[in-house]
Specification:
- The chain starts with a helix and ends in a 9-residue tail after the last helix.
- It is built from 23 helices and six strands.
- The longest helix has 15 residues.
- 45% of the residues lie in helices and 10% in strands.
- With 520 residues, it is an alpha+beta fold.
Length: 520
């Protein structure tokens, strides 16, 4: 039982490394405002006059297995698109109240991702509506599961008519921007999160649409002397807030891995690290520095430091951030020092060779791990550093061990080939080391490749056997056995037909014959 549970948990961990891609396959990305406007029969700014329950019938376009339907009487304030046919209209939508269900055997795993909303009496909204032929009742436009449950429902700032000369995206931006300074904490935080989601690409999250300029959004959120609304700095909201405007590769391990693989895109399954405009971070820098130096819990302070890294060179950021990093690198707080060590990858000169070796050998595993990732990101591959990474393969800490292997396979092969060859029998990482060499020089490891490709594998073979392998394979984004076979297949497919007949190559062709994905 325990073995089965470990297998399941490990598979879930591996899937989590491809969270964005995997989740997007199950849940469509949200529509842009322009797409919503285009598909809607009617877009209005309207005030809710009354709300009553509606019996849920399967033939209704808004029918939901999970959410109760309600009907709102709307008073039209402004018609942004279409003609409502009257000053007041009826609107049927999915509420946030759960339905009583007769069959509880079916889990409601996607209920929160069904488009639904809590409309409030006497409040105003911008709504995207549709209706069936020969009906006077309007319905919500989005009814499919989505990464934004609020898709098609935008709270309005007030009851005033919109400026008729503005288009729909401009109107929504103005309504949300005004809410950023609301005295109501919930209104302010919801507006900030909505604008952040609507001013980023899907590289940074499943609910992102690039409707607005991130630079303008950040300037508006941090317009009060570089500080956001107090609602965003609460213990509840702050982690999500930092995550929402982070543009760098250091806050999440999967983003760090993607960034590393842009340096050496030899056999990674990761898409390239997203290109960002580093200047978008500038409005938030005073807030992040203050947060890192505060007495908040350590995770928040570390995350603030991680957010200061962008993976790009920007002198306006450098003059503000580099002095702080120098100070944090000498901190007696392990969490602060390790976070600064990783973000210092943006400014490698902050950690010269002697300091780098000191950090790689630090007594605290958290610091050793950060220094190891620093090396992988910066691609520093002098003999002493690479030698210390080899020692890291025997580290007592699983994370340091796994990331040492990661650094070795990510660095230039001419700097690491000898170490990789010496460690082909490493029970944890030898297969990946073989794949790394095979990607560039398969002849050098021909015998080992034939042995590996003839080895029968099954789903359990692809599952890491220990924590060090988990950290390593999460960063790879796939399993090493696959990488070896792909390297061999790529090599053989690039050869002229006559070369495939040579004994050495024929052996490799033969060992792939029972593997349809790689068959030559």
């Amino acid at each position: 039982m325990m073995k089965r549970l470990t297998l399941i948990l490990t598979l879930l961990l591996l899937l989590s490394t491809l969270y964005k891609e995997a989740f997007a396959m199950l849940m469509p990305y949200p529509y842009t405002v322009e797409r919503l406007s285009k598909d809607a029969a009617l877009v209005v700014k309207a005030k809710v006059l009354s709300i009553e329950p509606v019996k849920s019938v399967k033939s209704m376009p808004t029918y939901s297995t999970f959410w109760k339907l309600k009907k709102a009487r709307l008073e039209i304030i402004s018609s942004i698109k279409g003609k409502p046919g009257g000053k007041q209209i009826d609107f049927v939508y999915r509420s946030d109240q759960r339905r009583e269900r007769n069959n509880d055997a079916i889990p409601d795993m996607t209920a929160d991702n069904d488009a639904h909303y809590n409309l409030e009496l006497n409040k105003s909204y911008i709504l995207f509506l549709t209706k069936q032929a020969n009906s006077t009742t309007y319905h919500q436009l989005i009814t499919n599961p989505t990464t934004r449950s609020w898709e098609g429902f935008i709270p309005a700032f007030d009851d005033k008519p919109v400026v008729s000369s503005l288009n729909c995206p401009q109107i929504i931006f103005n309504e949300l921007k005004k809410q950023l300074v609301s005295a109501n904490d919930n209104v302010a935080q919801n507006a900030a999160f909505a604008l952040l989601a609507m001013s980023s690409t899907t590289d940074f999250g499943c609910d992102c649409t690039n409707d607005y300029s991130r630079k303008l959004v950040m300037q508006d959120i941090f317009a009060n002397k570089g500080m956001p609304h107090k609602a965003l700095t609460s213990a509840k909201n702050l982690p999500g807030f930092l995550y929402s405007f982070n543009i760098g590769p250091y806050l999440r391990e999967d983003q760090t891995a993607r960034y590393i693989w842009t340096k050496q895109p030899i056999f990674s399954n990761w898409s390239s690290s997203p290109k960002v405009d580093s200047s978008n971070l500038i409005p938030a820098i005073p807030f992040l520095i203050e947060l890192a130096n505060s007495n908040r819990e350590m995770k928040i302070r570390r995350d603030a430091i991680f957010c200061l890294g962008t993976g790009r060179t920007n002198n306006n950021i450098k003059v503000k951030v580099q002095p702080q990093l120098k100070k944090w690198l000498e901190s007696k707080e392990t969490g602060i020092k390790s976070a600064a060590c990783l973000v210092a990858a943006d400014y490698p000169e902050l950690i010269p060779a002697p300091k780098r070796m000191e950090l790689l050998k630090d007594n605290y595993s958290e610091i050793r791990d950060a220094a190891t990732l620093f090396v992988a990101v910066t691609q520093i591959a002098d003999e002493q550093t690479v030698g210390q990474l080899e020692k890291g393969l025997q580290d007592q800490d699983s994370k340091v061990k796994g990331h040492s292997a990661l650094a070795l396979v990510s660095l230039p092969i001419d700097k690491t080939k000898k170490i990789l060859l010496n460690n082909l029998r490493n029970s944890d990482f030898g297969t990946a080391f073989l794949a790394r060499i095979a990607a560039l020089d398969p002849a050098l490891v021909h015998k080992e490749l034939v042995t590996e490709c003839n080895t029968k594998t099954d789903p359990s073979s692809e599952v890491p056997k220990n924590e060090a392998q988990i950290f390593f394979q999460n960063a790879l984004g796939t399993n090493p056995h696959y990488l070896v076979r792909r390297a061999v297949s790529n090599y053989l497919k690039a050869l002229p037909p006559e070369e495939l007949k040579k004994k050495s190559n024929a052996e490799l062709v033969d060992c792939l014959k029972d593997q349809p994905e790689f068959k030559i």
